[in-house]
Amino acid sequence: MKKIIVPIDFSIYSEYALEAAAILAKQHQGEVLALHMLELSEAVFTKGGFQQNEEAVFYLKLAEKKFKSFLNREYLQGIKVTPIVKHFKVFSEVSDVAEDHSADLIVMGSHGSSGITEIFVGSNTEKVVRHSKIPVLVLKDEIKTVGFKNVLFATDFATDSIEVFKRAVAQFEALHAKVNLVYVNTPSRFITSKEMREKVATFLIEAEGHTNRMADTSFVSNYSVEAGILNQAAEINADLIAVATHGRKGITHFLEGSISEDIANHAVLPVMTFKI
């Protein structure tokens, strides 16, 4: 985790993320890339030449001044912090910045969303999770340590999840964290206990060459995958939920939804998502 991106909107939630990123950066001798989306309105860009440029520069300077003040935090002392200001609020652009700077992780604070807002708009965090090619750590509250020691990793144990599973496990074991696995059986995709165990065993053998992690795998039944994961996290007193995401977009996302985005939105615990 040498380069960590933190999207900043000046809210208390982005401050939570900034402090967590600072802790990670100190632990790994890394740096923080503080990213602010300027959110210039379309009206600014429909004005003529000089007036457009003058107004855009005014808002840019205003944002830079506010940004500099926001980054004046004691916990950032001794850490290389690179401020980045983008003109628009396009959430796929966070992923582009991450790629341009070879970042390893995005840390975001989130208040979540629910009801009609979630269905038609979705939270900013959801949109970043959907587009990001690198892991995203989502926080709902202030944390004084990111030394996660008891991680619940949720997967459907499908073949296309093997590589992300291996990356996630390597990352957590480097942090000396215990990795617990969970398989959630639901009425809509019900399989027997025997079938569940066979599926997990096949996955683990292909991923690691053995089934040692079966001892740390829980098989739970619930009406939804999300509820099963959240309940199991509480059951084992996890300090982080990790989940793989397909990053569905467009009509597929609207019809099928995304378990990873729902968990990032609704979980009280920190959540880390990994793109398949």
From TrEMBL:
Residues 1-140, 148-274 form the UspA domain. InterPro entries: Rossmann-like_a/b/a_fold (IPR014729), Universal_stress_UspA (IPR006015), UspA (IPR006016). CDD domains: USP-like. Pfam families: Usp. Belongs to the universal stress protein A family. This is Universal stress protein UspA. It comes from Neotamlana nanhaiensis.
